[in-house]
Amino acid sequence: MKYEYHFLTWKNTQLIEFLNKHNIEYKKGANQLWIKFSICSLSPEAEFCLKELEKVNIRKDYTTVEFSSKELLEAEFLMMRPKRQSIDIENEDAFQYGCKWISRWGHEFMRHEEQVKELVVKKVPPMKKNNAFWCESTGFSIIFADIRIRELAEENSLMGIEFKNIFLKNGKCSDEFFQMTSSNILKKECIAWGYGEKIEHCTKCGKEQYVIDNAWQLHLDFSKIEKQSDLYVTESIFGEGIARPIYVISQKFYRLLVENKLNRSVTFYPVVNVSI
CA 216 to CA 42: how far, in whole Å? Predict the structure, then answer.
């Protein structure tokens, strides 16, 4: 596992000299006033450079993580997250929300989302060789899959995966595009906490929800799970503002996606078993 720490900051001569000295590549912004660069955790000088940058109040904007093929292939379960946000859902009444919440910036968000109707989308994306999964344009709580994924699940007797119909604005049902989900819910009792998650509370009802750790790793007690499914969905308790579910797939499902080269539009993170 390696971390990439990403920076976007104002350009200054002292910073440029520091980056050049430590062989850190950077790019200048279009207006030449700011630069962006990344530091890899596997670099011998990573820890030193991060500390030196923090001393002068240059802090990372965000962190990404990359797992090795070995780590992914040894995981019994993996979190799955689409890379592409491109599907516009047209029928807002497909969801019910428990509470309204006003953020610190004054924008209104809805919380405690529950889907109650089949989805209507603006348009179905074209099927391409590299893309088999998508998610809605405003987040990652809905995963869409094309017909190849449904056929893969049926041909290999994958368990617990449901493919819900998707409708277009003209009322027609798509025959090659589906919402992928599962009725196998990972309850809160199966999830282990205290591994870097942040907790926030709904200001109206007090319900807890969580922001997962920087490594995007879910920690589960496998002893509390009946491991008979190839797809699980957590309760909608993750994320800021809108509480969302997390999708967890089996190693069998993961290997089939890799073998059939249907994994390029999805990111995977090994799930950590805390029952060992």
Answer: 18
Nearest to 178 by CA among 142, 147, 154: 147
pLDDT tens-place values along the chain, 276 residues long? 888 999 999 988 999 999 999 999 999 887 778 999 999 999 999 999 999 999 999 988 888 888 999 999 999 999 999 887 789 999 989 988 888 766 666 666 667 778 899 999 999 988 877 789 999 887 778 999 999 999 999 999 999 999 999 999 899 999 999 999 999 999 889 999 888 888 888 878 888 888 887 677 899 999 999 888 999 999 888 877 777 899 999 999 999 999 999 998 999 999 999 987
Q: Is the dihedral of CA 223, 226, 229, 234 positive or negative?
A: negative
- Count of residues in the chain: 276
Q: How far are the Cα atoms of 11, 28, 29, 84 from residue 34, in angstroms, in the given order?
A: 5, 6, 5, 27
Type of residue at 231: L
Predicted TM-score (pTM) of this structure: 0.84
Asked if 100 and 106 touch (Cβ cutoff 8 Å), the reply is no
**Which SS3 state, helix, strand or coil, does residue 31 take?**
coil
Closest CA to 146 of 158, 123, 128: 128
CA-closest candidate to residue 81, choices 229, 259, 215: 215
Q: How far apart are CA 229 and CA 253, in angstroms?
A: 10
d(C-alpha 51, C-alpha 36), whole Å: 18
Token code pair at residue 131: 């893309």
**SS (HEC) of 56-74:** CCCCCCEEEEECCHHHHHH
Structural tokens at position 119:
């989805």
Nearest CA among 81, 96, 91, 65 for reference residue 239: 81
Q: Are 87 and 144 in contact (CB under 8 A)?
A: yes
**Quick check: 233 and 164 in contact, CB under 8 A?**
no
